[in-house]
């Protein structure tokens, strides 16, 4: 705050305080010629009279004491422009004190899970509940409160994992994030096979989850030639994908961006770019382990239930 603004604020506060003092004094005093407190001539129904009695002295003194308290408060705490107050109190310092206190309590809560394997943490119901709470506050925005995802956001409750579903792979995803890039192939394919090239590849990709539909399918047959020349680099010759690249398995019935012809055409022609943010700095390793354990437990309920009932 500049010196000019600081003095402006101080002057404004001083005027308000002096104005309150003057208002109490002005309204509380009696003036020459004022009628007696019991002589107002306002009478209703014969015996109901309005009096003009002043406020009791103790009540007025309370107002003055309130003003004195406010002056002391402004001297002790920062309130007069850039003046820091004799206590040097700041909201930032107060926040830091509370944060340190809560951080210490959180560290005590998380200490049993430091460095523990994700699948071992997932067998502790209390740990899974902690992970669920962290997930709800951090991850549910994209993956949904039930972790079933949405268009463009993967379902975490099934057994389909583009980057691998082992406990360590899930933890790595939470800590360091992922970036999945599907290259736009529209122009390349069109240059190879004409305007219908993308439609050919769409037709073939749709047969991968239903091999019987490949029979007598001219478009799919043309698409297979293009797939073998372009797409196998990431998705493999059998279309089962590559977890090291995040390339999805095209032989199952799960499509993160939708399985319609229009959606597949958009994916192949213009590509996709999905980003899972890294949470290492935001959550730290232990809380990331708890989240990973919760996520892993969603697709392995039998492993966690069997242990919790023993």
TrEMBL record:
<keyword id="KW-1003">Cell membrane</keyword>
<feature type="binding site" description="axial binding residue">
    <location>
        <position position="143"/>
    </location>
    <ligand>
        <name>heme c 1</name>
    </ligand>
</feature>
<dbReference type="InterPro" id="IPR004678">
    <property type="entry name" value="Cyt_c_oxidase_cbb3_su3"/>
</dbReference>
<keyword id="KW-0813">Transport</keyword>
<keyword id="KW-0479">Metal-binding</keyword>
<dbReference type="GO" id="GO:0009055">
    <property type="term" value="F:electron transfer activity"/>
</dbReference>
<keyword id="KW-0375">Hydrogen ion transport</keyword>
<dbReference type="Pfam" id="PF14715">
    <property type="entry name" value="FixP_N"/>
</dbReference>
<dbReference type="InterPro" id="IPR036909">
    <property type="entry name" value="Cyt_c-like_dom_sf"/>
</dbReference>
<feature type="binding site" description="covalent">
    <location>
        <position position="231"/>
    </location>
    <ligand>
        <name>heme c 2</name>
    </ligand>
</feature>
<feature type="transmembrane region" description="Helical">
    <location>
        <begin position="58"/>
        <end position="77"/>
    </location>
</feature>
<dbReference type="InterPro" id="IPR050597">
    <property type="entry name" value="Cytochrome_c_Oxidase_Subunit"/>
</dbReference>
<keyword id="KW-0472">Membrane</keyword>
<keyword id="KW-1133">Transmembrane helix</keyword>
<dbReference type="InterPro" id="IPR038414">
    <property type="entry name" value="CcoP_N_sf"/>
</dbReference>
<dbReference type="GO" id="GO:0016491">
    <property type="term" value="F:oxidoreductase activity"/>
</dbReference>
<keyword id="KW-0560">Oxidoreductase</keyword>
<feature type="domain" description="Cytochrome c">
    <location>
        <begin position="218"/>
        <end position="299"/>
    </location>
</feature>
<comment type="subunit">
    <text>Component of the cbb3-type cytochrome c oxidase.</text>
</comment>
<protein>
    <recommendedName>
        <fullName>Cbb3-type cytochrome c oxidase subunit</fullName>
    </recommendedName>
</protein>
<keyword id="KW-0406">Ion transport</keyword>
<feature type="binding site" description="covalent">
    <location>
        <position position="139"/>
    </location>
    <ligand>
        <name>heme c 1</name>
    </ligand>
</feature>
<keyword id="KW-0349">Heme</keyword>
<dbReference type="GO" id="GO:0006119">
    <property type="term" value="P:oxidative phosphorylation"/>
</dbReference>
<feature type="binding site" description="axial binding residue">
    <location>
        <position position="182"/>
    </location>
    <ligand>
        <name>heme c 2</name>
    </ligand>
</feature>
<feature type="binding site" description="axial binding residue">
    <location>
        <position position="276"/>
    </location>
    <ligand>
        <name>heme c 1</name>
    </ligand>
</feature>
<keyword id="KW-0249">Electron transport</keyword>
<dbReference type="InterPro" id="IPR009056">
    <property type="entry name" value="Cyt_c-like_dom"/>
</dbReference>
<comment type="similarity">
    <text>Belongs to the CcoP / FixP family.</text>
</comment>
<keyword id="KW-0408">Iron</keyword>
<dbReference type="Pfam" id="PF13442">
    <property type="entry name" value="Cytochrome_CBB3"/>
</dbReference>
<comment type="function">
    <text>C-type cytochrome. Part of the cbb3-type cytochrome c oxidase complex.</text>
</comment>
<feature type="binding site" description="covalent">
    <location>
        <position position="234"/>
    </location>
    <ligand>
        <name>heme c 2</name>
    </ligand>
</feature>
<keyword id="KW-0812">Transmembrane</keyword>
<dbReference type="GO" id="GO:1902600">
    <property type="term" value="P:proton transmembrane transport"/>
</dbReference>
<feature type="domain" description="Cytochrome c">
    <location>
        <begin position="126"/>
        <end position="209"/>
    </location>
</feature>
<dbReference type="GO" id="GO:0020037">
    <property type="term" value="F:heme binding"/>
</dbReference>
<dbReference type="InterPro" id="IPR032858">
    <property type="entry name" value="CcoP_N"/>
</dbReference>
<feature type="binding site" description="covalent">
    <location>
        <position position="142"/>
    </location>
    <ligand>
        <name>heme c 1</name>
    </ligand>
</feature>
<feature type="transmembrane region" description="Helical">
    <location>
        <begin position="6"/>
        <end position="25"/>
    </location>
</feature>
<dbReference type="GO" id="GO:0046872">
    <property type="term" value="F:metal ion binding"/>
</dbReference>
<dbReference type="GO" id="GO:0005886">
    <property type="term" value="C:plasma membrane"/>
</dbReference>
């Amino acid at each position: 705050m500049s010196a000019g603004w600081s003095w402006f604020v101080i002057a404004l506060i001083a005027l308000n305080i002096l104005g309150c003092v003057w208002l109490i004094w002005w309204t509380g005093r009696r003036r020459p010629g004022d009628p007696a407190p019991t002589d107002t001539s306002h009478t209703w129904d014969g015996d109901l009279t309005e009096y003009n009695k002043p406020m009791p002295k103790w009540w007025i003194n309370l107002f003055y004491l309130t003003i004195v308290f406010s002056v002391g408060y402004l001297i002790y705490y920062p309130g007069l422009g850039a003046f820091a107050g004799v206590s040097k109190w700041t909201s930032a310092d107060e926040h830091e004190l509370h944060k340190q206190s809560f951080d210490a309590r959180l560290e005590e809560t998380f200490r049993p899970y430091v460095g523990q394997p994700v699948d071992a943490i997932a067998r502790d119901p209390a740990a899974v509940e902690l992970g669920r709470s962290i997930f709800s506050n951090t991850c549910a925005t994209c993956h949904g409160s039930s972790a079933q995802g949405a268009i463009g956001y993967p379902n975490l409750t099934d057994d389909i994992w583009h980057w691998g579903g082992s406990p360590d792979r899930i933890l790595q995803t939470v800590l360091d994030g992922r970036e999945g890039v599907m290259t736009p192939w529209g122009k390349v394919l069109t240059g190879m096979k004409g305007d219908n090239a993308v439609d050919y590849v769409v037709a073939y990709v749709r047969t991968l989850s239903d091999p019987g539909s490949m029979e007598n399918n001219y478009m799919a047959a043309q698409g297979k030639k293009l797939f073998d020349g372009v797409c196998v680099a990431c998705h493999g010759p059998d279309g089962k994908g590559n977890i090291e690249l995040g390339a999805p398995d095209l032989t199952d019935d799960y499509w993160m961006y939708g399985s319609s012809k229009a959606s597949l055409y958009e994916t192949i022609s213009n590509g996709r770019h999905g980003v899972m943010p890294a949470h290492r700095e935001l959550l730290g390793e232990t809380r990331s382990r708890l989240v990973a354990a919760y996520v892993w437990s969603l697709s392995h309920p039998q492993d966690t239930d069997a242990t919790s009932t023993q």
